[in-house]
Amino acid sequence: MRIFKILTVIIVLLGGAYAASMYYFVDESKNFTVEKEIDYPVDKVFAQFNNLQNFTRWNNFFTSSPTIDIDYYTPYEGQGSAISYVDPKNDTDGEMFIRYENLNKTLKYQLFEDENENPTLVDVKFKPISAEKTKIIWYVHTPKLSVWRRVENFWTEDRFAENINKSMVNLKNSLGNKVEKDNQMAAIKYDSLMVENEEDKLLLGINVSTSNKKDALYKNIVMNYNKVYNFVSMDLGKKDDEFGYPILMTDADNYKDKEVSYFLGIPLSKKIGVSDNNFNFRSVNPSQNYVMYYKGNYEGRIKAIQQLIQKAKKDEMRFGDIRQTFIERPMEGQDVNLKLSLSVYK
């Protein structure tokens, strides 16, 4: 009994010392600032923050958990938009609101976590450094904590900064694919032969051999495109702005053969684990390409390919494979919108 009393006194004294140290030496809430720069124009960046459907696709807080369930409320972007979320695996839930918007300049968020009635306040400012570069500044004010919970303030800033670091990687990948698509669409000049330097790519796709009889090849391409797209979007959970246009790679002159072998893949930013053996990764090395854009029925692409090959021969260039980038989704019975790229070298 005496030992129990002594232990009780010790616990009370330690608890009192802890409470006193928290009360006098640790702030009940925290204010801190995080700054980052990203190589994209302010209007492109802002659109990823004020549209909460975009926001949850790259923000690590939401993407890091496979079990999180998010509901979106109208208006889906700008002042007044909101989401609620539940994550049963991590036993968390909350609500997030955009309370103020100044287009391309400022956003103010409120985040209510679990059953806390006091929100975390996050003001985000966007400053264009140049036409292609933006500074993003987060001003964070955490909710007041009781004396017993104030110890959490020791790691709040580090945890927030770590989340932003991971989120910025996701945002860069997302914007890279989106801006690349926008730039490609804006640069299209049909039936004109151009020379381009293409950077390396990483494709996730499928190897195929099929008949080259009339319409059979294109039907096969549509079928396998759907396989790859469904695998990337559904099995891997990737959104459309997280990957590039689908690319079909094949020998430049195999359009004359009775049977055609090709690889059809979708560009991803990095390798990830894939459990289905039907799909594999292929790296595409940087190359110089002769390029033509073509729109029409799939058979009509052959004339454009022949022009690219003739140009290479005339310039005394050797050539490798032909890459067919589908600017629009291939669909049976419809015309295609293609970027045809013939890799050339001396």
Unreliable residue stretches: 13-26
Structural Rg: 27 Å
Q: Would you tell me which CATH topology of the largest domain applies?
A: Alpha-D-Glucose-1,6-Bisphosphate, Chain A, domain 4
Please state roughly what percent of the residues sit in beta strands, choosing from under 5%, 5-15%, 15-25%, 25-35%, 35-45% or over 45%. 35-45%
Query: What oligomeric state do these chains adopt?
Result: single chain
What is the CATH architecture descriptor of the largest domain? Answer: 2-Layer Sandwich
CATH superfamily of the largest domain: START domain
Give the overall pLDDT as a whole number.
83
- Sum up the overall morphology in one term: elongated
Number of strands: 15
Q: Would you mind describing this structure in some detail?
A:
This protein is α+β, with helices and mostly antiparallel strands and 346 residues long. It has helices spanning 2-25, 42-50, 52-58, 60-63, 153-186, 216-235, 301-314; strands at residues 31-38, 69-73, 82-87, 92-102, 106-113, 120-130, 133-141, 194-198, 201-211, 247-251, 259-268, 280-284, 287-296, 318-326, 336-345. The strands form two sheets. An eight-stranded antiparallel beta sheet has the order 8-13-15-14-10-11-9-12, covered by helices on one side. A hairpin with a 4-residue loop joins strand 3 and strand 4 (92-102).
Labels describing this entry:
346 residues, seven-stranded antiparallel sheet, 15 strands, Multidrug-efflux Transporter 1 Regulator Bmrr, Chain A, eight-stranded antiparallel sheet, Alpha-D-Glucose-1,6-Bisphosphate, Chain A, domain 4, alpha+beta, ASHA1/2-like_C, 7 helices, START-like_dom_sf, Activator of Hsp90 ATPase homologue 1/2-like C-terminal domain-containing protein, 2 domains
